[in-house]
Design brief:
The protein is α/β, with parallel strands linked by helices. The protein is built from 8 helices and 7 strands; from the N terminus they run βαβαβαβαβαβαααβ. 47% of the residues lie in helices and 15% in strands.
Length: 255
Amino acid sequence: MDSDFLRGRLALVTGGGRGIGAAVATRLAAVGARVVVCGRTRADLDALAASIDGVAITCDLADRADTDRMLAEVAALGRVDVLVNNAGAAESAPLAGTDDAMWDRLLELNATAPFRVTRSLVPAMVAAGWGRVVTIASNAGLTGYGYTAAYCAAKHAVVGMTRALAVDLGRTGVTINAVCPGWVATQMADQAIARIADKTGRGADAARDALTSMSPQRRLIEPAEVAHAVLNLCHVDARGIHGQTVVLDGGQVMK
C-alpha cells in the first residue's frame, strides 16, 4: 500500500480522542491525511491532534446544534474527503428498563448523528467525484444481544443506512461502508466489564472472560485492527468495496 495515498486529503474522525477513533486518526495521518478529530473531551482531543499535527474540535454529537457548529468549523478548513463516523455509546437494560430517554440517547448518538454528519459532508464529495465514508457500527448491527434493544436497533440502523446510501452513491466515486467490530479493548469494554462484575458479583476477571468467550478467538479486538480495516477501505484500490459490512470479531458472527 502506498505510504502517502491520502496526501492532500482532509479527514474527519468523530469520537476521535481515544480508543478506536484515536487509532483511526493516527493511521490516517500516517498516510498523509490532514485529520480533524472531534469529541467531547478537550484534553484527549488536544493531545491526539498534537501528536498527528491535526485539528481538534470539541463537539457533543448528541446535541444537534453543537453538531452543526462543529460542521461549520470543519467546512472552514476545506472539503472533507474521508469521513469516519466513530462516535458512539452503549447502555444495557432489559425491555422494561429501556425507557424512552435511553432509547432516544442511543438512537441519537449511534444512528441520527452519523446520518446528519454524512448528509452534510457527502454532497461535496460527490461534486468532487471522490470520497470515503466509513461508519464504525458493531456486530450488534448484524445480530441481537440480550438487554441491548436500543443499542442493537441503533447499530442496525446505521448498517441499513450504509446499504441504502451505497445504492444512491454507486456511480459517484464515493464509497460508503460499515466496520462491525465485536468487543474492542477500549474504555467501552472496560465499562461493560465493570457493569457485569457489579451485577453478577463474579469479579473483573470472570466478567472479562464473559466478553472474550463470545469470540472463537477468545480475545478482544484491538483498536489498531479496526483502524487497519478503515485504512484499507480508504485506498483508491478499495473503490469496489461499497455498501459492505466488514466484520471484525474473531469469527463470532459469520454473515
